[in-house]
Amino acid sequence: MAFEFAAGMSLPGYFRAETVRRVVEYGHELAHLLGFEKVGDIFDVDADTIRDAVEVVYRAHEVDELEDEPARASRLDVVDERIRQIAQVADRYACRATGSRRESPLVPEGYEVYPSRMIGFVAVCGEGCGPVYFVFARYPREAALIDPDITSVWSALSDPSEKSALRVSEAHLVQCHLRHVWLFRLVKKRFPYLRLWVQDDGEFWQKEDVHRLLGKAAVYSAFLSLVANELRENGFEVIVPDGEAPLTE
User: Fold this and answer.
1) Chain centroid to CA 201
2) In b/e form, how buried is each residue of 50-74, taking b as 16+ CB within 10 angstroms?
3) 177 part of a folded domain
4) Does 240 map to a domain?
5) How far is CA 30 from CA 8, 12, 23, 163, 213, in A?
6) Helix or strand (DSSP H, E) at 46
7) Model pLDDT for residues 93-124, shown as the tens digit of each residue
8) SS3 label, residue 43
9) pLDDT digits (tens, 9 = 90+) for 64-100
10) Is residue 243 situated within a structural domain?
11) Is residue 247 a part of any domain in this protein?
C-alpha cells in the first residue's frame, strides 16, 4: 500500500526559454500563495554552470582519492547553497544508461548525460514532505543515445514524498497533498499547452473528493500502525527517523 503523488511536465523543445521561465515564475508565485513552507529562489543555469556545480559537489573527492568523509563534509560546508542545490537537481535529472531497449548499442555501461540548461526552483510543502523539483531541463544531443525523445522537449519531474507528513497528523498529510495537487492543477489551468501527467494515489486529482482523500489517509495510517504493531509483537524493532513520532495504535 502506498500514498504517493508525482507529476511530470513537458514543453516542446522549440519553445523559447522565456516561455519556460514564465511557467516557472507562475509556479513559484503559486507555491508562495499556497503556503509552501520553503520556496527557493528561481535559477536559470547553463551547461557550464551545471558541470562546475557537479564537479565541486560530487566529483572533487574522486580526484583526491585520499579525501575521507570528514574532509569531504568540511569541503562541502563552504560550498554555496545555490551551487549545492544546482548539483543536486542536475544529479537527479541526469540521463543515465540502464540497458533499456531504447538505448543505442553504442552507449557504454554507466554512460550519463547531464542537462545542458535548467530553469526552475525547489520547494518544500511542509514538515515531513520531500522537495518539489519544479525544474525544466533541456538535454544535449548525445542524450538521445539513451532516450531518443528527451532532447526534443523541456522536461520536468517531481515526486515529493508525503509519507513522513503522516507522522505529524492525518490532517497535515491531507493539507500537504492538496497543496501539491493544486500547484500543478493551477499551473496547467494557466498554461493549457503544458503537457502534464499525474499519479495521485489519494485520487484527489481524479475525483476532487476531500472526504475520499481523508478516508484514504486514515486507511494508510491504520495500515502503517498495524504493520508496526505486528512487527513489535514479533520481536522486531521498529526504527523511526530522528525527530519523527512513532506510529501507534
Assistant:
1) 16
2) bbebbebbeeebeeeeeeeeeeeee
3) yes
4) no
5) 17, 23, 11, 23, 22
6) strand 43-46
7) 999 888 777 777 878 878 899 999 999 999 99
8) strand
9) 555 555 555 555 555 688 888 999 999 999 998 887 7
10) no
11) no
User: What's 59's DSSP letter?
Assistant: I
Residue with cell 503544458: 194
pTM, rounded to two decimals? 0.81
Instruction: Say which residue the cell 560550498 belongs to.
Output: 79
Question: DSSP letter string over 92-104?
Answer: HH-EE----TTS-
Q: How many CB atoms lie within 10 A of CB 118?
A: 24
Written as nine digits, the cell of 29 is 508565485
CA angle 226, 230, 126 (to 5 degrees): 45
Lookup: cell for 44: 536559470
Number of domains in the chain: 1
Range of the domain at 64: 5-233
Task: Give the dihedral of Cα atoms 213, 216, 222, 225; nearest 10 deg.
Answer: -80
